[in-house]
Amino acid sequence: MPYKFVPKMKSIVLEDFGSVDHLVYQELPMPSINDGEVLIQVKAISINPVDVKTRSGKGRAAKLKDEHPIILGWDVSGIVKDSKSDLFRSGDEVFGMINFPGHGKAYSEYVSAPASHLALKPANVTHEAAAAATLAALTAWQALIDHAKIKKGDRVLIHAAAGGVGNYAVQIAKHIGAYVIGTSSAGKRDFVLSLGADEHIDYTSQALEDAISNIDFVLDTIGGENIDNSLKVMKKGGTIISIPSGLNDAVAAKAEALGIVGYPIMVQSNGEDMKKIAALLESGSIKSHVSQVFDFDQMKAAHLLLETGRTQGKIIVRV
Ligand SMILES: NC(=O)c1ccc[n+]([C@@H]2O[C@H](COP(=O)([O-])OP(=O)(O)OC[C@H]3O[C@@H](n4cnc5c(N)ncnc54)[C@H](OP(=O)(O)O)[C@@H]3O)[C@@H](O)[C@H]2O)c1
């Protein structure tokens, strides 16, 4: 039999659900691409709480448990090396959230991706900044724009405004012309205000109802009693979207009685939404705030930092 050369790449395989020690570096065959897909040489990966949750057996673990090998990660920026799509050619710089909520396989030197999940990376944005503006920015965009359809003048409350989703949500809401209130601990107050928030609430020392009222839209990024507390400051007819947990039956009933609409959402890969985010990044209307960049061989350290829950902006892994 003639020898067939199979190009290899370095990937991080999740050998079992649990601690960071289950993230194992392996040489794997480069992915092949199907019609409508592109092969991306990954330059930067952003990591999210769902990466950490899935690694530990929650998040998307139930969905991925029968896949072999499991390769975490959904958020990339990189260079197209091969294309079976009319949307992108070899050499194009692209970014996006791949196959979420499915199997993204982004913790690799190369990844295959549906072209319909990607957008061209603006030339004035680095791969690190572009990779940051994927799952987190898409979640903020889909919650505020696609679902809630916030509008100019709305009073908008963004919880965890300094975090991955929250920092984009503040910027997108301001871009729309909303009046934005952001929560964080005191140490991140200046950062939240620098994003454009009109008001800041230190959730460690202030009750929401002592500080604000008449809120049209709440982005809940915390879950649990944070939803209950948010209802106290909302207008009749307002909307609350909860991204970690959704509303339990008791809280949903309370919201309904107050005339408030509350529901969870799950972010979806979407190249059209990515193009809108690309345009905002290109024009400078929103910016990525990358607080720490790790090298590819430091993925475990990146996970350990993210799981402290104290991230400001985004954490990026450079490939
Ligand atoms: N459903 C979906 O599609 C979807 C999509 C994206 C994310 N999510 C979920 O949404 C949550 C947030 O994601 P993320 O990427 O924004 O997380 P993240 O970047 O890890 O959030 C970190 C931030 O949370 C802040 N924080 C922690 N507790 C807080 C509290 N009680 N009140 C206000 N701020 C608080 C921290 O600020 P301090 O240090 O000042 O406390 C920190 O800046 C996660 O549970 C994630 O899994 C769901």
What do these coordinates show?
Helices cover about 30% and strands about 30% of the residues. It is of the alpha/beta class. The strands form three sheets. Strands 3, 4, 5, 6, 7, 14 and 15 form a seven-stranded mixed beta sheet that branches. Strands 10-9-8-11-12-13 form a six-stranded parallel beta sheet, sandwiched between helices. Strands 1-2 form a two-stranded antiparallel sheet. Strand 8 (about 155-160), helix 5 (about 165-175) and strand 9 form a beta-alpha-beta unit. The protein starts with 7 loop residues before the first strand and ends with a strand. The model has no long low-confidence stretch (mean pLDDT about 95).
Number of strands: 15
> What level of helicity do the residues show?
25-40%
C-alpha termini separation: 35 Å
Poorly predicted runs of 5 or more residues: none
What characteristic shape results from the CA principal axes?
A: globular
Bound molecules: NADP nicotinamide-adenine-dinucleotide phosphate
Return Rg in Å: 20 Å
Q: Report the sheet with the most strands, covering strand number, pairing sense and barrel closure.
A: 7 strands, mixed
How many helices?
A: 11
Any descriptors?
about 30% strand, alpha/beta, seven-stranded mixed beta sheet, 11 helices, about 325 residues
Q: How is the secondary structure organized here?
A:
Layout: E1 8-14, E2 23-29, E3 37-47, H1 49-55, H2 61-64, E4 75-83, E5 93-97, E6 110-114, E7 118-120, H3 127-132, H4 135-147, E8 155-158, H5 164-176, E9 179-184, H6 189-194, E10 199-202, H7 208-211, E11 215-220, H8 225-231, E12 234-242, H9 249-257, E13 261-264, H10 271-283, E14 290-295, H11 299-306, E15 314-318
Parallel strand pairs: 8-9, 8-11, 9-10, 11-12, 12-13, 14-15
Antiparallel strand pairs: 1-2, 3-4, 3-6, 3-15, 4-5, 5-7
Helix pairs in contact: 4-5
The protein binds NADP nicotinamide-adenine-dinucleotide phosphate.
